[in-house]
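Board notes, transcribed. Complex of a protein with aspartic acid.
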Amino acid sequence: MTKFALAIHGGCGVMAKLDLSEAEWNAARRDLGRALEAGYAVLERGGRAIDAVQAAVVVMEDSPHFNAGHGAALNENGIHELDASIMDGETLAAGAICGARHIRNPIIGARAVLEHGDAVLLAGPAADRFAESKGLAVEEQAYFTTEKRKRALAAMKAHAAAGTAFAASEAEKHGTVGAVALDQHGHLAAATSTGGYNNKPEGRVGDSPIIGAGTYARDGVCAISGTGKGEFFIRHVVGHEIAARMAYLGEDVETASAKVIMEDLKIHNIGAGLVAVGADGSVAAPYNTDGMFRGWVTDAGEFRVASHAEVMSYP
Ligand code: ASP
């Protein structure tokens, strides 16, 4: 069988073990496994990388355990503003939405922009209207809200009032979901979706919908999806930076990703991580925090999921 590859993340920076119950950790890892299954099913039957990353991200958006779609973070005014993007490495076609408030699956909204839009990035109410005009599912804000996010917003506001925002746990702060894939035809794709970070300013847009920053894919080089303080991913143009290191310096995906996460971003003292797949199907999932929800499929077709250092088989 021709080689294909898939890797996903559900956000980095978690992850004091006490933040979640054992049952919640298990449920989150199970949903990572389900996301892998969804993406793998597309790749195994010879489908396209872009469909695989979309399928995997939809599962994580629908899960309450990750900061995207249902379960997304709340901004300073208690509103969900959702960012997502998707990129096809074969054609460099890309679609993104930001500040959307109603698109049930932001990644499907981003895909619709890629397929039908004259733009790469649609913002705010226009993104919601566009999605609705294409017949995509839209929801009231309440659909996206979970008790966990409400508690996280209250905790972040308390930290802000006390001047201790730096001490907030990573789980209170942020999270994101993403997927990268290589399909049997040699094409790469990447997708990323997020609610941003809890208590973010209204109108703030992170790196996830910015092509070249939080998401990037180029055939023959790599596909990248990032998680962490988006402002720094934008300044370092992380996705493109890794692709450039690989293309111009000849670095492999592991070396280029580690350089950016463990050195370039680490010096800002921010949590950061990503998943990457190279054109040869090799996968990297570096993070500079205590943990990162992540998963990938081995060459033997076995599923691996992890939140902390320990890597587990799924199912
Ligand atoms: N990168 C996301 C953002 O800045 C948040 C995260 O991944 O934690 O919007």
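The chain has a mean pLDDT of 94. The first strand starts at residue 5 and ends at 12.
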